[in-house]
Structures are given as structure tokens and as C-alpha cells.
Write a structure and sequence with these properties.
Length: 360
């Protein structure tokens, strides 16, 4: 049966003035709207007890499975306010599908796509005041997540789970909009491996990325690009974004090989590029494609992309072995693709692929 997410209103919602102050300087992921969508699952009953309820803490037993074995998955998508005040989600069906793939890998329950989307739209309808306007590429970032909720310290798939969606008004993940970023490249650490959980959006992948991220920031870099750590020759992705190179009039990006995330921004960029007459080659990308390509001048532009970060031009790739400076940080192809994608999301360009879902 379809979930409905009935509303229990927050008795002390933030005032319009408080929300306006947050919107003036949202940062990323530090402020949360007045409500959250929640539903719980039990293997004998399926999904039960759904609702939009006041935003607030969960009560968690110290033995709760997720705290010990990280049986947890999440998603990220944004609600965009268009110039006429309407509010739209970008490709939420893709997030719903991907969450179910992650759920399968982590032995968490499947959630109907329609229920996933309803959890998101009910929250956005309820907290519409929290969706900022388009200025500064702001949006309401939605974070759907699911975790194992059994109180048991043995290792086994949990017979119960919680699914929740929270909303956070945000600016792009990297402060400064299209300011080109420096990326730390490592083959010393792996965030994922063959047969592992790289294609799933599970918390453990991000836990594994924290130490390399600290190393990267010690070298002045805001993200880490992983080179597969056994053969040390295959470019994968960043800790929280997919990567593209622009070379000889063509975009290059690592093929989906089970180790990287099937990014929704990635697949949208490939489509937008095709719409603009730019071909994309999805293939095994080698360290030489990256380093020699930049050194020889063949690779003219590079960018990272993801929901949180949108599309961030790369200024340089750095590693223990040197610095590879892009000749055209924030080059014309990156900027053209970025503008088209953002224009679709904010309703300034025609949505020819039916990607946008109107909520309000
Ligand atoms: N790769 C990783 C590891 C990510 O965490 C993300 C962010 O969600 C992406 C890629 C980009 O995916 P999407 O474009 O669906 O946000
Ligand atoms: C997203 O882009 O939605 C992510 O989950 C990435 C994370 C680094 C915030």
C-alpha cells in the first residue's frame, strides 16, 4: 500500500525572519528545516508508521546495528525554486532507483520509487518556506537515508530499518561558486574495490575517504581523486563527485565499473553534452590519460560533478609526485555545460528530457 506521510506540525517552527537570515548565508548542511519525513520497516510488517514530523533527534539504543556495522545508505538531491516561485525536484526517480540498488548491496529493504518520491515531495511541500531562491545557486538539499535499527550486536542483516528525509538550505558544496578547485590524487588509499561497495551510496565508503581527505587538505586540496590502489593505473572518482576530462574536443569519464557511483549529475552532463553536440567517451581512464594528458597539453579542461558540488572546474591535480596544472581552469566547455545544466534545474532552459518534477 502506498505511504501517505501525514503531517504532525512542528509546534515551534522557525520564523520567516530566521529562515531569511539562514538563506542569506546557508553554507552547506548545517541548517535543517522544521520537519522530516520518516517511515519504519519491519520484515514481518513491511513499511509502517509513516509521517512528516517535527525535525528532531532519534532515540537510539547503544546496541543499534547501524552504530556498530554501518548498515546504512543515503541519497542526495535538491529542490530548486524557479523565478515564478514554483519548486521542483531534479530527477528524483533516479535517486529512488539508486537507493534501491544500494539497499540491495547493504541488505536493507526496498522502498517503492513512488514512496521515496512522496517522502521527498511531502517534506518540500510542508517546508516550502525553506527553499531559497535561485540567487547564488542556492537550493534545499534533501538527504534521504536508511539505517538498520535492530538492537543486536551480532553481525547479521537487520530485520528492521528506518527511512528518513531531512532538508537543508544550501549553497554549492564548494564556497565561491565556479572557483576552480585543487584535487589531491592518491593511489595509497582505496575508497572502494572490486566486489566492494563502490557503486552503492553507503556511509562506510565515506568513512574510508576521511583519512585521505585529511591528507588532501594538508596539501591545500578540497577533494581527493582515487586511482585504483592495486594496479595503480585506473582513475576512479572523487570522494563525493565524479570526474570528467575534456580532450581533443571530447569528454572523457571513467566507465561505470562497479567501483564508482553512477552519478545522476554525471549521466545528466553526458546527456547535456550530447544535446550541445559534444561526444563523451565512457571508458577505462588511466593515470597516463590524466597526468600525461595534462602535461602534454592535450587535456584542456577537467571538472568534478555531483549534486552537492554541481559542476566544479579543476584548477590542478596534485600528488606526492608533482602538480598538474590545467591550462584552462574553468574553460569554455565546462562553463557551457554547467550553465545549461543549471538553467534546466532553475527553469531557465527548456527541460527537454522531462527531468524536473514540480512539487509546489
Ligand atoms: N561519487 C560519489 C562518491 C558521490 O558521493 C557523489 C555524490 O552524490 C557523486 C559521485 C555524484 O553523484 P550525484 O551526481 O548523483 O550526486
Ligand atoms: C551529494 O552530492 O549529494 C553527495 O552526497 C556528496 C557529499 C560529498 C555531500
Amino acid at each position: 500500500m502506498a505511504l501517505e506521510f501525514p503531517l504532525t506540525p512542528n509546534p515551534s517552527p522557525k520564523s520567516d525572519a530566521e529562515i531569511a537570515a539562514i538563506h542569506a548565508n546557508p553554507g552547506f548542511g548545517t541548517h535543517f528545516s522544521d520537519h522530516m519525513s520518516v517511515t519504519t520497516w519491519h520484515q514481518d510488517q513491511g513499511w509502517v508508521a509513516d509521517g512528516v514530523v517535527p525535525y528532531g533527534p532519534f532515540q537510539i539504543n547503544p546496541a543499534c546495528a547501524v552504530l556498530h556495522y554501518a548498515q546504512e545508505i543515503f541519497e542526495g538531491l535538491k529542490a530548486y525554486r524557479h523565478a515564478d516561485g514554483s519548486i521542483w525536484l531534479f530527477r528524483p526517480d533516479e535517486n529512488a532507483k539508486r537507493m534501491n540498488k544500494s539497499a540491495e548491496r547493504l541488505v536493507l529493504p526496498q522502498l517503492d520509487e513512488a514512496d521515496f518520491i512522496k517522502a521527498c515531495t511531502r517534506l518540500v511541500e510542508t517546508d516550502a518556506r525553506w527553499v531559497p531562491d535561485a540567487a547564488g545557486e542556492r537550493s534545499l538539499y534533501l538527504r534521504p537515508f536508511m539505517f538498520a535499527s535492530e538492537d543486536y550486536v551480532g553481525v547479521r542483516p537487520s530485520p528492521s530499518a528506518v527511512f528518513c528525509v531531512i532538508g537543508s538550505p544550501v549553497a554549492p558544496y564548494f564556497a565561491g561558486g565556479v572557483k576552480p578547485v585543487d584535487i589531491w590524487v592518491t593511489a595509497d588509499y582505496a575508497r572502494a574495490g572490486i566486489g566492494g561497495t563502490g557503486f552503492a551510496k553507503c556511509g562506510g565508503n565515506y568513512a574510508a575517504s576521511l583519512l585521505p581527505q585529511v591528507e588532501g587538505s594538508e596539501h591545500g586540496c578540497s577533494q581527493v581523486l582515487y586511482i585504483e590502489s592495486v594496479g595503480k593505473d585506473q582513475v576512479e572518482e572523487l570522494g563525493g563527485m565524479n570526474v570528467f576530462l575534456y580532450r581533443d574536443g571530447k569528454l572523457l569519464t571513467p566507465a561505470l565499473d562497479g567501483m564508482i557511483l553512477d552519478g545522476i549529475t554525471r549521466k545528466s552532463v553526458i546527456q547535456v553534452a550530447a544535446d550541445l553536440g559534444i561526444e563523451t567517451e565512457e571508458r577505462r581512464l588511466t593515470a597516463a590519460d590524466l597526468f600525461d594528458g595534462i602535461a602534454s597539453g592535450a587535456v584542456q579542461e577537467a571538472f568534478a560533478c555531483g549534486t552537492a558540488a554541481v559542476m566544479s572546474p579543476v584548477n590542478s591535480f596534485k600528488s606526492r609526485h608533482g602538480v598538474w596544472q590545467l591550462p584552462q581552469p574553468a574553460g569554455p566547455v565546462t562553463l557551457k555545460l554547467r550553465e545549461r545544466l543549471i538553467d534546466i534545474q532553475y527553469g531557465r532552459a527548456e527541460d527537454t528530457h522531462g527531468w524536473m518534477l514540480r512539487v509546489v
